[in-house]
């Protein structure tokens, strides 16, 4: 009689566990489908730097398409490096070509660290990532934009650089 009680109780627990597992799977699958079908409010792409040495001749290119002109956008420079990177800043040229326009060149000096705070970035172990604003919030026209990054530091190649990239996001 005791064994029947234990078996019945065990079967009841297994049935309840299966029920909860099915509900979890349904909720997880529905959430996954819902969130994977929503549109992203940003473009971000990075390129790996060969041998962690950014030569001035290596100028990564990026392109993205703007469809929504009813909002403002913010453009960022994405920069990943190791802790051995030797400088508190970086100098780059940003070449941009809006749809139906000519190529524009803009130099930037971007601060990466201070003596007081150290790296102004998110980091894990010995790798740091910066997302540095290149523009104020701006209105972009519809069409394809082309961007190119150029390292203009005196050190060539620039050592301990892992990735560089562009991030464009809607201002909320």
Assembly type of the chains comes to: single chain
Order of helices and strands: HEEEEEEEEEEEEEE
Name the beta content range: over 45%
Structural category is: alpha+beta
CATH classification, class level of the largest domain: Mainly Beta
CATH topology group of the largest domain = Jelly Rolls
The low-confidence parts are: 27-39
Number of domains: 2
Strand runs, count:
14
Could you estimate the helical fraction of the residues in percent? 10-25%
Q: Major β-sheet, in short?
A: 6 strands, antiparallel
CATH architecture assignment of the largest domain: Sandwich
Whole-number average pLDDT?
86
The radius of gyration computed from the alpha-carbon positions, rounded to a whole number of angstroms, is: 25 Å
How far apart are the first and last residues' alpha carbons, in Å? 66 Å
Our count of helices gives: 1
Rough outline: extended
